[in-house]
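Dear all,

This email documents one entry for the complex benchmark we are building for the journal club exercise. For each entry we list the sequence lines for every component of the assembly. Then comes the predicted three-dimensional structure of the complex as a token string, followed by one or two observations. Please use this as the template for your own entries, and keep the labels exactly as they appear.
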Amino acid sequence: MIKIYKVHIMSLVVAGTMLLLTACDSQLDIKPRQLIKTEEVLVDEGNLQLVLISAYTGLKGTFGTNEAGELYGGDFNFFSELLASTGEVTWVGSFDQQKELINKAVLVNNSRVRDSWIRAYDVMNSLNIVLKYLDLAKSPESKASLEGQALALRGLIYFDLVRFWGTPYQASDSEYGVPLVLTPTEKVEDIEFVPRNTVHEVYGQVVEDLLKAKQLLEGFDKNDVFISSYAVSAILSRVYLQQGEFQKAAEEANRVIGFNVDGKNIYKLMDSPLKAFNNESNSTEDVFALQLNSVSTSGENNAGLTTHYARLNGHGRGDMRISQSHIDLYEDGDLRGGVVDNLADEAVIANVDQMFYIGVGGQNDGGIQTSKYGDGSRNISIIRLAEMYLTRAEANFEAGTNIGASPLEDINVIRERAGLDPLAGPLTREMIHKERHLELAWEGFTLHDMKRWKENIGSLAYDAPELILPIPEREIEANENLKQLPHYGQ
Amino acid sequence: MKRLLLNVIGVSLCLLCMQAYAQERTVTGTVTASEDGAPLPGVSVLVKSTNTGGVTDIDGKFRIALSENAEVLIFSFVGYESQEVAIGNQSVINVSLKGSEKLLEEVVVVGYGTQIKQDLTGNIAKVSGEEIKEMPVQSFEQTLQGRTTGVFIESSNGKPGEAIKVRVRGSSSVSASNQPLYVVDGIPVTSENQGITNNQPTNPLADINFNDVESIEVLKDASAAAIYGSRAANGVVIITTKRGKAGKTKIDLSYQTGFSKPTNKIGFLNAAEYRELYTEATLRYLGIDPVTATEQDKQDAGIFLEETTGLVPGFVSNTETDENWEDIAFQDAVSHQANFSMTGGNEKTQFYIGGNYFDQEGILLGTGFERFSGRLNLDHQAFDRLKVGGGLSLSRTELERVSNDNAFSTPLQLVAQAPVTPAYDPETGEPNRNTIYDNGLVEFANSESGTENYRMLGNIYGELTILPGLRFRTDLGVDLLDQQEENYSGITSIDGRPSGLGESRKVRVINFNTNNFLTYSKSFNKLHNLDVTLGMSFQRSSTQLTSLQAKGFPHDELNTIASAVETVTFIASEEDFSFLSYFARANYKFNNRYLLNVSARIDGSSKFGKDNRYGFFPAVSAGWILSEESFLDNLGVLSFLKLRASYGLTGNAPTSNFAHLSTYKGVNYAGKPGLRPWTLPSPDLKWEETTQMNFGLDFGLWNDRITGEIDYYIKNTTDLLLSRTLPATSGYTSIFENVGEMENKGIELLLNVAILQQKPFSWDMSFNIARNENEVVKLLGTDIIGNPFRVREGEPLGVFVTRKYAGVNPDNGDALYADGEGGTTADYNLAPNMVVGDPNPDFVGGFTNNFSWNGFDLNVFFQFVQGNDIYVGSKTYSSSNASSFLDNQTKDQMRRWQKPGDITDVPRAELVGGIGDQTSSRYVEDGSYIRLKTITLGYNFPKTITDKLFLRSLRVYVSGLNLWTITDYTGWDPEVNYTGTNRSQTNTNLIQGYDFYTAPQPKTWSFGVNIGL
């Protein structure tokens, strides 16, 4: 009797347990802890602001820990300086990707070229999301700010994309621009297999975005971290200069230089050239700079400006070695051309008081390095006021105007800051070009300036296909509508 | 070994069927095992031609009342040969039973139960703990290499404790895991790497001491594995630990020490050769034709290299040094292993206690592995109907590590240094800091890197006999992994300059699992046998990670983060997933010859959206034991013949826990938080499904002297979980979807032969070989593109797609590539991509011979892999005709093109010229090898000696691991799998056969002694 009773109890226990455990379907509802669902993001202005901030982070090329150095965090500078190099810099690192660039023999599977392409359109998607959801803004002011910033950054990126991947801007249009993607991808069905737009179409979009951004951002110009209407003017001055629209370029540069509050200029040149670099927060010379700190760098191990340009104790690998031929371009006494040659092995950027130094601290040391990127946790200047003076000078010179100041006055502002005597004139085109080359050395201008000036790079004409980046192989394979430059085959 | 399990069954049987008879005279005695003299409980003792009999008790003793006409006793026990003994007028009969060689009677562990091998209808490979116990390796998967038919096992490199790739019948997925499910005593355990992402993955299974393992079963076909449903597409590896055994307490002690060296060294240029090659390369860089160059030109080129560029210290000035950097990267490694086990108990309670200490130095400088582990397994018959028990193992492993294979600071990258530069500063004796590349020895001297795991595997169970034949079992298991990584690069080290870089990373993985199931077995009329299993299981896994990286240390001695001044990265995160499953299985056997097995599982997972959460995974299989049929009675040599067929569905879930969601992720913009779009929605994401068909034939010849298995299978995976390539202009590079199909088909053959069984000599051998053909049948859109690894429609997973190297232009020494139209081109961009290699082997297998003679035993075990290609990524630096950078080159580069007319396959040397150093088939090699994996010679001292020493047994042995490798591969070792730096699941599957300064396997001599008390 007792036995049978026991069996029944046990059967009940068993049946009960089984039942209990069947009821745990709810145990399958687990929410992610490190990710947030899209429908919880695109709900208010605050979140939209956060999406916009992610685009700023994207510009310096680091989103995750494994990716680094794309776009303005490194590659846009290296692409320009390496492709344009005729010996003023040598690449002494072991990476093949940069070696291909300096050899003007870029392979279609170059991973740096691929990654910057990917990152550019990745940031673009964030910007397009912001532009699509502007109605979340609570006030017309915040809407204008969000829209203006998103358009400004989109204009900036497309401008650089077309400068690197497109044929040089000329009066006659070219089919080899870059694809314009102006709407966000929110689901896989949104994806279009976009062809290249023409060079003119891309420039047209860039100018349209920037002009609108400039107008929208006017009145929000206090903030030195996010992009301002003056930064937009500065970008416009670059675009117009590249297009040969000199008067417009001079006007935009003039607007930046003249930015003042109650008669006090907001942007000011630092009192010595080196002080414009390696700053923890924006200097008075920064019109637009990417914000970095020790936990948010552009990459210090395998990529990034500091990685390749610096060779100090614990900073950089000295891969971008500046040649004596570059140093020789500076006049005696030029503060921009000094070389420190007695750094201790333990030296960091704080110990460097010249624009160049002989690298120390390990592998590849002993070469000349630029001091502009001595610490990967310091801000990266994208636009400095000095560029605006040089742009205004060159544009006025070419247009035969004196908007804001005469070209000679502007050139002399830069010279005097560099500790040099002012020029008496007459000013020549070569002098302007040289001043620009020296002041903006290793800041990623060379290739674009050479193309503007239609100057040969070594034996290559300014418009040689070798000086245009290939569309990444993965992209050509993923999108049959994309047409590679014939030089790169397929 | 198998006896342990059988005894447990035996004891239970004994409890159930003890009966008393009242007859006239009695006979008593003891039954022992012939191999060690231990008493055997549960042996059936039957009076021939009657139903009278009994079973032996816990001490192997029996007592049987005999009727007048009793003449002969039959002693039988599963796993032993039956024996008949004439009674005569003896009243005491002692019998010693001999272990049966009949593999077919082996008990095989299946999901949620066991089966006799003879009755299997699925395909299961089994390895007993006894076969693998003496191997000086860290983890049990390594011991299975070549021993399990159709299972391809590959270490990622020769560094201890790092990940092992296991593919059961090929890869079935592109973007979900291809590793099998590991189940230890019923608990699915954590087997995925939990280490930092910028180093090679580590192997949490190395926490398990395989000396505690009774058997390992690999469930290969759908019928065997489908009971594990959604996790079974890649096969299931079931690990069963040793259980206690009633009887006198037995103690086993063993000690082993080993000495290791690398299996191979490559050989790089010596100082003179280096100087010759790089002078030539520099001359070309300077625009001077080396053929017409004067001695002065050559001298100047050297000065340019050493002084002008400052890149190669000692190139001209140091004529003394001829450094062999390769030798410096390796160390002579010593290992020690001590093992202890104790087992015993009484009829009601049995225990097993195991302890292990393993300390192994790696052959690569700065690597090592250490493990302490202990296990207690307990079983107790609480009441007639209730059995309870459990197991608990605790272990601590410590891994001493070096930087990733792609880091300058990793020891094997020392080979890139110039032989003209000394490794150590001749004045100070410290590592030389004036080298081309950062000297990894600096890192070695100034850095520490270690991973410490505490692992607890515990389970408790209760088993209730509700009615005869009907049982309910419940178990609860926990797998707790607590991993602490400490990495510190010192103030003067390469990675840590200028103020030290420290990292502290902690991972805790808790895996909770419960299984609850009913089993019913019943035999009707001795013709029908039915076994039914019905139950559910639930698993929840939670992974918590905390990681801090900081710099700015005051002193290398103060290297915990507490002393640092600046944070570099900080992470705290949690990832959870759960599985809820219901399963059922029925085995039906008719007349001992017709077998039918039906199983099904329903799995629900948190990894899918609500609508696609549950998957249904059924399987059916049938077997026919032809040799039981009367029409095959007189086939003489044929002692056993069985046909098997199975068909079933298994599944796979994504590695990522939230792949179906559209999400954003937090980012940091210099202190300002942001939200970045992260994944596109994939709302229809569902289980990846693999249907597998298997046809098998088991046979025995000459009274099972020869046994074998032949299997043919087709595995078809549809709705592939795939990270589909998207045009990056969309803002995304991929989306996770169910698209595409993959197929694996293959043949497996296993053959066991008892060649000689003439006392005192015996010789048996076992041979297995498997062929698997993998093909990505369908893919939506473009390839998944790695460099050069790809997923391409119509090709096997991970094929190498790149330019085809076509040798050297004899006129100018240019590297040439096939232009796709039968010609060649020197322009890499114009050469089309084509398939130039396949990392998947055509055949894998193993070949074992066991010899024994008068206490001596010799085991010789070969393992082989045939038909796989390796992409040697490091050769773009080390075998690049001095045109990549300044790396020392392999000897073959001296064959470079020098002057017009030279016919060679190595292009001209030209400093940083990049001549032929790009990714191409130039760096693809055949990775086939056959290896003398282990050879062991042992001696078991005879009882006469052990008795004198008061020992139960005594064995000494000497053993060799990886002593001899035959291969055409020119790298260190063909067993390689560098996983790259971006270890997404897709990349992990895609990147196979990649060598990038990857450490070779160790070649080890071991000496050991085993003592039984």
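Observations: Chain A has a mean pLDDT of 91. The CA atoms of residues 332 and 340 of chain A lie 15 Å apart.
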